[in-house]
Write a structure and sequence with these properties.
The strands form three sheets. This protein has a five-stranded parallel beta sheet, sandwiched between helices. A five-stranded parallel beta sheet has the order 9-8-10-11-12, with helices on both faces. It contains ten helices and twelve strands. Helix 2 runs parallel beside helix 3 and helix 7 packs parallel to helix 8.
Length: about 260
């Protein structure tokens, strides 16, 4: 019988999920404590873990990091009620299998669990939801997109996700630096001109932090002085908007190959 571990600080949610998935033929283990959840994960090696993001004492992101340390490929579905965009991106950067916002139909969660439970376990890949609802094989490389235009940011994240990268996006320089501090991505695609903290300031902060990954600048600005300032901070590539997506993909591939070298 396939085992499911539920970790949620709300006992009612634990009971509800246990009843639902028991009726669907799963063996369900539950706890309201993140620390106890890790002990149960270590003891039972569940096929799927349902993990609440917001919990006292040990929150879901901390639990997820510890699970990844034990098993980098474990299937973990995060229940993200009230999660911020930064928290959601941090969870996705840690290769969460799916991210379900609380309040959605239980049918959505059941379908996600059924889909994940039927997947064969593979040693070097992790299942992630694609934009069309299917689950695709995912590479190990992660790419952070930083652009204040929500449409551009979301489209680039979807484009890279469908090509197998662990892509996440933020629309603010400060959020980008927090992501890098927590889960250092392999490459960053960074808009140069943004309100608040500009791309130049983000790039300078990354250099001060000795960020080891590749950086690709994208900009619609043709100001030579600004471009020279950007180049002086050592990005691997500067691409002018409108971005050719295949050109961007090639640039990312080259950056990641050079990083491995």
């Amino acid at each position: 019988m396939i085992k499911i571990l539920v970790v949620d600080d709300d006992q009612m949610n634990c009971d509800l999920l246990q009843n639902v998935f028991t009726r669907h033929g799963y063996q369900v283990i539950s706890t309201t404590s993140g620390l106890e959840g890790l002990n149960l994960f270590r003891k039972h090696a569940p096929r799927v873990t349902l993990l609440d993001l917001r919990m006292p004492e040990m929150d879901g992101l901390t639990v997820l990091k510890e699970i990844r340390a034990m098993d980098p490929h474990a299937a973990v579905i995060v229940l993200g009620g009230g999660a911020t965009e930064v928290q959601e991106n941090q969870a996705r950067a840690l290769r969460v299998t799916d991210f379900i916002r609380k309040g959605l139909s239980l049918d959505v969660l059941v379908e996600s669990v059924n889909r994940v439970a039927q997947l064969p376990t593979r040693p070097n890949t992790a299942p992630v939801p694609a934009g069309n609802g299917r689950i695709t094989e995912q590479m190990d490389e992660s790419v952070l997109v930083v652009d204040d235009d929500p449409l551009v940011c979301d489209l680039l994240v979807q484009f890279l996700s469908l090509r197998g990268y662990r892509a996440l996006g933020v629309k603010d320089g400060q959020d980008a630096l927090r992501i890098v501090e927590d889960v250092s991505p392999d490459a960053i695609v960074l808009d140069l001109v943004m309100p608040g903290m500009s791309g130049i300031e983000v790039l300078r902060a990354l250099r001060e932090k000795e960020y080891p990954g590749g950086i690709i600048i994208m900009t619609g600005c043709h100001n030579e002085e600004l471009l020279d300032e950007a180049w002086a901070l050592g990005p691997q590539e500067v691409l002018l908007k409108p971005i050719d997506l295949e050109h961007l993909l090639t640039a990312i591939q080259l950056v990641l190959v050079c990083r491995e070298c």
